[in-house]
Specification:
Elements (H helix, E strand, L loop, with lengths): L2 H8 L3 H70 L12 H8 L1
Helix pairs in contact: 2-3
C-alpha cells in the first residue's frame, strides 16, 4: 500500500462500517414500511371508489325503472282518457321500482 492509500483507509473503522450499515438498513426499512402503507391506503381508496360507482349504477337503474313505469302510467292515463272519461282510476303501487322489476 502506498502512503496515500493508508491515509484514506486510516479513518475507516469497523465502528463506522457497522454504523453505516445499520443506518442504511434503518432507512430502507422506513422506506419499505412507508411504501406498503401507502399501497394499502391506495387499495382502500380504489375499493371505496369502486363501491361508490356500483351504488351510483344501482341508483341510476332504479331511477330508469321508475321513469319507465311513470311513462307507462302516463300512456295508460292518456289512452284511458281518450277511450272514456268515466273509467275508474287505476290502483297506485306503493313501490314502483319493485313493480317495474316484476313487469319486465
Amino acid at each position: 500500500m502506498t502512503a496515500l492509500e493508508q491515509r484514506q483507509i486510516k479513518g475507516i473503522t469497523v465502528k463506522n462500517i457497522v454504523l453505516t450499515v445499520l443506518s442504511t438498513a434503518s432507512i430502507v426499512t422506513s422506506v419499505v414500511t412507508t411504501y406498503f402503507g401507502l399501497k394499502s391506503e391506495i387499495q382502500s381508496i380504489k375499493s371505496s371508489g369502486e363501491t361508490e360507482v356500483r351504488i351510483n349504477n344501482i341508483r341510476i337503474k332504479i331511477l330508469e325503472d321508475q321513469t319507465a313505469l311513470l311513462q307507462k302510467e302516463i300512456n295508460d292515463i292518456q289512452l284511458a282518457g281518450k277511450a272514456s272519461h268515466g273509467a275508474p282510476e287505476r290502483a297506485k303501487t306503493t313501490d314502483p321500482a319493485m313493480l317495474s322489476a316484476i313487469e319486465k
